[in-house]
Design goal:
Elements (H helix, E strand, L loop, with lengths): L13 E4 L2 E4 L9 H21 L4 H15 L13 H20 L7 H19 L20 H30 L1
Antiparallel strand pairs: 1-2
Helix pairs in contact: 1-2, 1-4, 2-3, 3-4
Length: 182
């Protein structure tokens, strides 16, 4: 047993399953960031749609458009512009949730009560999604180093490449000879 409280002896971050080792996400229980972005697109689209159906469309439409732009500009699998780092997004989401709540409760711009309720409900969903999301960025894999000169697989690959190249050259020479005879 490598680690305490590890009955399978597999180590941290590995789940024993049918006597195999399956790697787990770095933040167990957290959603991957692409799901977070997808939900933000859906929430922004829902706010824009709510604004289009509302008698006073300004607040929900502008808020929805801002959420869509915010999700599209954060680096991730579903981003369009890749301008904002995920760490900044992680800090900016609670601020955006507070702005959503303030926009739903503010008394200055006229918004009907049903739209206010939808804005605050979307803010609550956004907060839950933020709480359960993983903002870690995947580390880039280091490229594998080329094999050593005496490596058997490298030698086989070189020989195969030379054989194919020689065959292609022979076909081209034969075609050129036929064309010259005509």
């Amino acid at each position: 047993m490598l680690y305490e409280n590890d009955p399978g002896g597999f180590g941290p971050g590995v789940v024993p399953f049918l006597r195999t080792r399956l790697a787990v996400v770095s933040n167990p229980g957290k959603r991957p960031f692409w799901m977070h972005q997808l939900v933000e697109y859906i929430l922004g689209g829902a706010l824009v749609a709510t604004g289009l159906q509302s008698p006073q469309p300004f607040v929900p439409s502008v808020l929805g458009a801002f959420i869509l732009l915010y999700a599209a500009s954060t680096r991730g699998a579903l981003s369009a512009f890749r301008l904002i780092d995920r760490r900044v997004h992680k800090v900016g989401d609670p601020v955006l949730v507070l702005v959503e709540i303030a926009a739903g409760l503010q008394p200055w711009v006229s918004v009907d009560n049903g739209t206010r309720f939808i804005i605050v409900a979307i803010a609550a969903v956004h907060a839950v999604v933020w709480w359960g999301s993983s903002f870690t960025q995947r580390e880039r894999r280091a490229r594998a180093a080329a094999g050593e000169p005496g490596d058997r697989s490298t030698e086989i690959g070189k020989k195969a490449g030379r054989a194919v190249g020689s065959g292609v050259n022979m076909v081209r020479k034969a075609q050129a000879a036929r064309a010259a005879r005509r």
